């Protein structure tokens, strides 16, 4: 397995730190603190993205009747991972996680717990190989049945927007009618302070993450029927009782159904 370098900051570990996780090192905490010094709202962004993921999964299971999930670009395990949220409502749910980060692979065992009725699997594959992802997922999921594709904050790492759109198209092409795309990404046009902080971070030599205008995020849903309220800042998508007063942030998300 590839050696894990703890001498340089790592985006998955920094994200984990912002979410309140423990799978990070002093170098990640330092980078995370430097970012929050410029833009304290990044913690709200990280937790808002995670909360959207949970709400979209609950909708998919409870409202749409989905029982299969393909979570690509999984990131480090935290609280309420996809399988935990889904299987809490429907224990027979089946989940395939995909990532090709050696750090995530090292923690994959935390993602492989499952109810006895359901199943979870982890595939060490690249986002840039959609057909291989679908082939591997088919060993755990029945891809003739509706499946939810989850892309949570991963496409911003793809520098070319057309390439990112192509990845989404190819993944969805392998899923049947009635499948869904749950996607949320960092956005431009809502929070200039976030944009400034992220652009500065990208110039440090760290693995960049590109914020995109909302119309470019909307393009990922081309050909899909959006669940109301459509593509919105993530706190505004199906807020639940007890959520803090939802306000727009620079992270947009939506749920789309394949006709």
TrEMBL record:
Listed name of the protein: SAM-dependent methyltransferase
Record region (Disordered): 237-259
Taxonomic superkingdom: Bacteria
GO terms (BP aspect): methylation
Coiled coil: none
A Pfam short name: Methyltransf_19
UniProt keyword annotation of Transferase present: yes
An example molecular function term from Gene Ontology annotations: methyltransferase activity
InterPro entries: SAM-dependent_MTases_sf, SAM_dep_MeTrfase_SAV2177_type
Keywords: Methyltransferase, Transferase
């Amino acid at each position: 397995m590839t050696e894990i370098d703890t001498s340089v900051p790592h985006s998955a570990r920094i994200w984990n730190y912002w979410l309140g996780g423990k799978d990070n090192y002093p170098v990640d905490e330092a980078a995370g603190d430097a970012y929050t010094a410029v833009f304290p709202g990044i913690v709200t962004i990280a937790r808002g993205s995670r909360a959207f993921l949970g709400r979209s999964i609950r909708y998919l299971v409870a409202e749409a009747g989905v029982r299969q999930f393909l979570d690509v670009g999984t990131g480090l395990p935290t609280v309420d991972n996809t399988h935990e949220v889904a299987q809490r409502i429907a224990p027979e749910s089946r989940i395939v996680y995909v990532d090709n980060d050696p750090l995530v692979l090292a923690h994959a065992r935390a993602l492989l717990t499952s109810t006895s009725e359901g199943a979870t699997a982890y595939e060490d594959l690249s986002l840039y190989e959609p057909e291989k992802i679908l082939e591997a997922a088919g060993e755990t999921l029945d891809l003739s049945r509706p499946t939810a594709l989850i892309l949570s904050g991963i496409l911003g790492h793809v520098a070319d927007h057309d390439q990112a759109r192509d990845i989404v198209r190819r993944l969805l092409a392998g899923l049947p009618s009635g499948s869904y795309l749950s996607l949320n990404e960092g956005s431009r046009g809502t929070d200039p302070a976030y944009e400034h902080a992220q652009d500065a971070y990208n110039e440090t030599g760290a693995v960049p993450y590109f914020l995109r205008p909302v119309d470019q995020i909307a393009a990922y849903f081309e050909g899909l029927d959006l669940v109301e309220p459509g593509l919105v800042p993530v706190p505004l998508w199906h807020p639940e009782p007890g959520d803090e007063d939802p306000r727009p942030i620079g992270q947009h998300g939506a749920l789309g159904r394949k006709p």
